[in-house]
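Section 5.1 Outputs to date
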Amino acid sequence: MVHITSPAFKANAARALADAGLQKALDRSKGTSHGKRAAAVAALPEFERLRDIGRDIKNHTLANLDFYLEAYAAQVERAGGTVHWCSTADEARAAVLKICRDKGARTVTKGKSMISEELGINEHLEAHGIEPVETDLGEYILQIRKEPPSHIIGPAFHLNREDWESTFREIHTELPKDRVFHERSDIMAEARTKLRSRFLAADVGITGANFLIAETGSSVIVTNEGNGDLTQTLPKTHIVLASIEKVVPTLEDATSLLRLLARSATGQDFSVYTTFSTGIRREGDLDGPEDYHVVLIDNGRSNMIGTDFQEMLRCIRCAACMNHCPVYGVTGGHAYGWVYPGPMGSVLTPTLIGIDKAGNLPNASTFCGKCESVCPVKIPLPKLMRHWREREFERHLSPQSVRSGLAFWAWFAKRPGLYRMATKLGIGALSLLGRGKGKFTSLPLASGWTAGRDLPVPEPGGTFMARYKAQKAADQRAARR
């Protein structure tokens, strides 16, 4: 399993903020993904209606998940494939290892798959003498750097061009000294010099799945590099790793969601490669596997059905939420300490590893609401993060200082007259103490705030309520004139 550092989110974030290379990479991407998504959405007038359709497809499927999973499995078997039902990560790892051993596999090529990161498939195969080879460009560079992904669709989001070049020069020792990587195509070409032979030598290919189609028994993957196609067609055995919520009822439903996916993820109308895979190679097929296996993984997801967190299972892994998140935008993905970063990870990770380990994540949000506004299937991410905060509070997992502070504030908030008096006195005292300063860099009893940010000195005019009351009275006087 991937080492989990979610409990150390605050320390991780502090290191991220001080990392000049990471900040350069994050700054470079700011605005780019926003602009591309906005342009793609503007070019599709029915996009908002499509979001409603996507939400409804996922809600319907989740309400009938057992039926559609059984229908999907029946179609896979009809097409010559085998379905492995796995309740836990251990069962899924064991299933993959057994398939590989049965085939005598020594080398396995892999398409990008976040569920494989969740399961720690690479580490498990390596521990049993099988070499996994990542074929996605970003995942490939991270594998040779021995780093985990920092983003669910752009795994090497945290790297700059010079990082790629230095890694290639270190690992690809035959690289000419005068070779310069000016463009992404140069990086791609260099990776291909190594990966082509690995594709041809692989005994087994492993891919994830963006969708599973109950109607046809097909798995769907989207890529921009074509590595997914080579991974599932060249080896004799193809393994699909997919979590249970990836199933959708029909081909039409899948295409509706595909219209949302690329636009939300990369600002494309469609990914360069959208590949449907159905069972084993048939007579007359030019390529395809002789053996086709689908490893269906629960790993805690069925426990979300019927709870406050069921809506999280609508996620189609587009990453729009993290692309627009101000917290992710300055900390990057590694700060979140596990596989799923950003707002979606702040909801999903506590479900999978426990709120006791991931309590910092739902608290790492400004609640600006941008994540919900761009989610293609309208997941109310801020609401779900609030639910986790409530669970954390109920289980007494939040720091005592936080709990005491909230209790103190709540006591005043329940007494409106006393609350207004206290805030009026507080505003007055802060205005007096901060006269001529403009801001406080430290304050007694408020070090939790001022340790990470300045506190502006209140402007003249009193509390919000007092100013609102005065403005309302002025508006009424003006209306009477």
